[in-house]
Amino acid sequence: MRVIFNEEMRQVADDMDRIAGAVSQAIKTSGKALLEPNLDAAQEVIDGDQAIDQLEGSIIDQCVRLLAKQNPVATDLRVIVSTLRLAATFERMGDLSRHIAEAVRRAYPDPPLPPEAHDLFGRMQDFLNQMSDRLVAMLSDRDTKVAEQIIIDDDQLDQLHQQTFDLALSDEWTGSKQQMIDLVLLARFMERIGDHGVSAARRVVYIVSGFDPTKDPKDLEDID
Amino acid sequence: MRVIFNEEMRQVADDMDRIAGAVSQAIKTSGKALLEPNLDAAQEVIDGDQAIDQLEGSIIDQCVRLLAKQNPVATDLRVIVSTLRLAATFERMGDLSRHIAEAVRRAYPDPPLPPEAHDLFGRMQDFLNQMSDRLVAMLSDRDTKVAEQIIIDDDQLDQLHQQTFDLALSDEWTGSKQQMIDLVLLARFMERIGDHGVSAARRVVYIVSGFDPTKDPKDLEDID
């Protein structure tokens, strides 16, 4: 993220790259845990969450110290505040990935979902994996156009989310009650990861360019 | 909240009281919407959410302006950052209350939950109502002991949350598939409101006293 931040924010930039990478990894591995299903992958995500939390803590500490420096020629304060919120958004995405992994682990040795749900959840995971790659890319190449694509694709993710409910209510559904409960939870976790991804994309656009072309600037401070 | 903040933060204090009051109202009215059920109450919560979002936006704008003032004798920057996060937490509690109301409205004219779920959800709502009152009280009387009670009671809320799953999986369950889906969602929304309440309580303790006796200070910057 050094291409976006000035020298003063260099350490924060490096930590932001680390947290984005760790969260991208957590999202992809939780998808692997869910869809194969794979217990080792689930445990990997659960074990990896602490590092994400620590990175967030470190980034926030550094942002607060920068705010305290009171140097009028320094980084725009709104950028520092947005960075703080972006780190928190990443941390929440990591938590949601961990919740997915925990659901897989709880269900074990049963599969968390019945076979007829696989296609739908596979497609949702494809969106999340693509979104993760785009977010990581945005931090290193300042490509704010990518943000528009993340926002557009999230609508499709929301539609797939709605379809999981239709599936559970249909005659096609062969799952147990526990699997229905897990379907609702897992679909929600994934939908929330997507929402946070949109939030993160908007914040990166704001940090890079100083504005969000799709929203009232005040709304940029929304934490989802 | 003027008893907690200095003169410089007076406007922020008043807005924080307003947002806490509006969120407390939203939590209680969403409970009424769910348990009676009551469509007008649901609509009231849905309509009232915009005001909460606007208050959060205003509080954040003011905090950023205060951060920009760079006055070394002014409010501790960590307090300003914590206030920003507290406002975001309240806003999220408002959103979750709106999600509860939207589920009630979607289910109408069917009740969102079958009769056997009423007792459990009623008890969960009692906890949320009590927590709301305590949060509002904390902001006006600096009573940080109340925070401990909020934290303890949240464990009980989590237990009730687990019991909703047991109920859905039991022979006692008479609900439709849609009602099972709504049970999982509603229980999660309520559990998340409780989690955010704990977060909010910890932040108020930090703002009042400068420390959280139960956690590493770095973790205080967690946004849930």
Describe the structure in brief.
Two copies of one chain form a homodimer. In chain A, 76% of the residues lie in helices and 0% in strands.
The biggest beta sheet of chain A is recorded as:
none
| Computed structural class of chain A | mainly alpha
CATH superfamily of chain A: Phosphate transport system protein phou homolog 2, domain 2
Low-confidence stretches of chain A: 213-224
Number of helices of chain A: 6
Organism (chains A, B): Bifidobacterium actinocoloniiforme DSM 22766
Pfam families (chains A, B): PhoU
Main location (chains A, B): cytoplasm
Subcellular location (chains A, B): Cytoplasm
Describe this structure in words.
The structure is a homodimer of 224-residue chains. Chain A is mostly helical. Chain A has a single domain, classed as Up-down Bundle (Methane Monooxygenase Hydroxylase, Chain G, domain 1), CATH 1.20.58.220. The first copy, chain A, contains 6 helices and no strands. Chains A and B meet through helix 2, helix 3, helix 5 and helix 6 of A and helix 2, helix 3, helix 5 and helix 6 of B.
